[in-house]
Request: fold
Amino acid sequence: MKIKLFAAVLLGAFTFLNLSFGFNHEVKAQSEGELEELEELNEVTEELNNLLLQLEDLGNLNLQLAESHYEDGNSFFQEEDFNAAIAEYDRAIELNPEYAEAYTNRGVAKAQLGDRNGAIADLQQAAELFKQQGNMSAFQEIQQILGQGQ
Reply:
């Protein structure tokens, strides 16, 4: 999430530079000073573009790592090693705080260990994320589970 926000800020700065300075590769400099300024803007623009690409790659890597931890958590869950499963779901959520499925599975693992409050908190978070993501069937399913537990 922080990476996406930072990338959006950089993109906004890039757009501001373009609009504020009338940046256009076709513009002919009228003086040597303007030429140097345009060259500097070109360099800054190129650096910003490279940084945005790197941030996008980092964000994609985080999502892949989150998926890997989620799958490891599922393996531990199947082996009924709920503490190890929770630790893996924790890592997945740390890398992708919008990972509704990881919250769901962590909540179920906490329930298996008798952590009712932790389970409810995770399931509520999962439900909210599913709702935000437009996955209404998962949202309703979690809501039903929460209703049964009360």
Observations:
- Residues 63 and 106 are 17 Å apart (CA to CA).
